[in-house]
Amino acid sequence: MSKGKEQKKERLIKTIEKAALIYKEKMVGRHFLYVFDDRYIEVVFRERDFMHLTGVDSTLRAEQFYKDAIRGRLKADHIFFSKRHPYDLCAKKASQLINIGKVVDSELFILEDTTTHTFTYKFGLTDLELTMCLSEDTDQNGNIVGDHYIARSLRVEDCFDKSEEAFIVRFIFARKNGERKYSTAMYQEPNDTILKLPTSVLEKLDDKLTGL
Question: Could you report the per-residue pLDDT of 118-150, keeping only the tens digit for each?
């Protein structure tokens, strides 16, 4: 490997490691409730999904890639690029990867039925610069597991023109894994109030949020 290519990899790795720490601190170990229109979806950001969001190919399994990233132990020979995942695309993703935490605590739009050249995602979260594509969680046989969605892909674009519908995210709530109800309000659309939410959402919130 030439010195120039190795330096590019090292810069990319540093960005991935920074993003992994944000992913761990703000996203892993929680469930998130996104309220839009009068509907909602629940989303889980798993450790093993992080590698797919970076866009790189790796000699490591997804779980080990994440662990090495948060420990600052990724090496140049752990990642490589391919026709499907070229360096330029991965570098473009890296430019927004460190902003990954925005999808859990900032103003967003939720996109419905987002179609790319390889897949149709049921939902997407976008801040107009990056889009987190979501799909139902399934087992190895394709059976749906639970009623939550998981992160499948990160795209450096808003994807509005690739989606059937777009809605403003009214609220984002969070709860730790193991908690029964959502106890933290991560984001609230200005001039909206929790008590305006439908009963199906209010029932999922801790009393300290609703005051009921």
Answer: 789 999 999 988 999 999 988 877 788 778 999
Q: Which residues pair with 165 in a beta bridge?
A: 112
Contacts of 195 (CB under 8 A, 6+ apart): 202, 210, 211
5-14 exposure pattern, b = at least 16 Cβ within 10 A, e = fewer: eeebbeebbe
- What tokens does 189 get? 């659309």
- pLDDT for the residue numbered 75: 92
Q: How far apart (Å, rounded) are the C-alpha atoms in residues 86 and 66?
A: 20
How far is Cα 76 from Cα 72, in angstroms, rounded to an integer?
12
Cβ atoms of residues 43 and 34 within 8 Å: yes
> Both tokens of residue 55?
């866009």
Helix (H, G, I), strand (E, B) or coil at 4: helix
Give kind and range of the element (H or E) at residue 40. Answer: strand 39-44
